[in-house]
Amino acid sequence: MRIIRTKDYRDMSRKAANVISAQVILKPTSVLGLATGTTPIGTYEQLAEWNHKGDCDFSQVSTYNLDEYRGLTHEDPQSYHYFMRQNFFDKINIDLANTHVPDGANPNADEACSEYDRIVREAGYPDLQLLGIGRNGHIGFNEPDDHFSKGTHCVDLTESTIQANSRLFDNADDVPRQAYTMGVQTIMYARSILILASGPEKAQAVYDMCFGPVTPQCPASILQLHTSCTVIADEAALALCPEA
Ligand code: PGA
C-alpha cells in the first residue's frame, strides 16, 4: 500500500482529486468506481471545479457506485443515487446514462444484486475505485464478518453504521436497515484503488487496514493484498501510524 499523509481534509481532497483527474486525463473512457459518505465530498467539489474550468472532462467516463439503501428509490433525497447527483453528477459534464448505482427500489434482492454484478462485469470492472472507510473498517457496506464477501449482495446494517449514518436523517429510526453493496471480491477486481480517510474517529480503522492482520473482521485490511492501492489520509486519521 502506498500511504500519502496530508495536512487536513482539504489537502486530502485535493490530492485525491488530482489522482482521479490524472486517471481521466490518461484514459478519457475510464470506468470509475465511486463512493458516497462525507469523506469524498471535498474530492467531488474539487473535480467539479476543474471540470467547470475545462481541465477535467467526464463526457466519456462511466461510473459504478458501491452501494445503495434497500427500499429507497433514486428520487428519494436520502438515497445514494440522489447524493451522487447532488454532490457530483449534476455538477459535471457526465452523461447520466453512464452513471450506475444499485437499484435500491427493486425489492427482489437477488435480482437487484445479480443485475448489478452483470453490468459491472460487462463494464470490465473499474479502472479506479474510490473508497471511504467506516469506523469499524467497512468498505462499501461490507461490515466486519467471519468471511470476505464476493459479489453484490444484500446486507443488514450494523448498529454502529446505522448510528453513524443517522446524522444524515431526521432520526436513527429513519435509516434503512438493509443495503445492496458491491462485495469485497468485486472491489478487489478494480485495477487501482484509492481509499480516503479523515479525522481521529478513523484512526483505529486506518491502522488496522494498513498494519493489522488481513482479516474479514476489518474488511479494508484485504486492500493490503491489492497490487495498486493508495491510501490518502490526513494527520488525524494517521495518528496511530506514526511510521507511515
Ligand atoms: P464517511 O463514511 O465518509 O461518511 O465517514 C465512510 C464509510 O462509511 O465508508
Automatic annotation (TrEMBL):
Q: What class of enzyme is it?
A: hydrolase
- The residues covered by the Glucosamine/galactosamine-6-phosphate isomerase domain are 15-227
Entry GO MF terms: glucosamine-6-phosphate deaminase activity
Please give the InterPro entries that the UniProt record associates with this protein: Glc/Gal-6P_isomerase, Glucosamine6P_isomerase, NagB/RpiA_transferase-like
Q: Give the Enzyme Commission number.
A: 3.5.99.6
For this UniProt record, the keywords arranged alphabetically read as follows: Carbohydrate metabolism, Hydrolase
- Pathways per UniProt: Amino-sugar metabolism; N-acetylneuraminate degradation; D-fructose 6-phosphate from N-acetylneuraminate: step 5/5
- Report which reactions are catalysed by this protein: alpha-D-glucosamine 6-phosphate + H2O = beta-D-fructose 6-phosphate + NH4(+)
Active site feature:
D67, N136, H138, E143
The record lists the membrane-crossing segments as none
Give the family per the record: Belongs to the glucosamine/galactosamine-6-phosphate isomerase family. NagB subfamily.
Function (record text): Catalyzes the reversible isomerization-deamination of glucosamine 6-phosphate (GlcN6P) to form fructose 6-phosphate (Fru6P) and ammonium ion.
Q: What name appears for this protein in its UniProt entry?
A: Glucosamine-6-phosphate deaminase
Q: Species lineage, top-down?
A: Bacteria, Bacillati, Actinomycetota, Coriobacteriia, Coriobacteriales
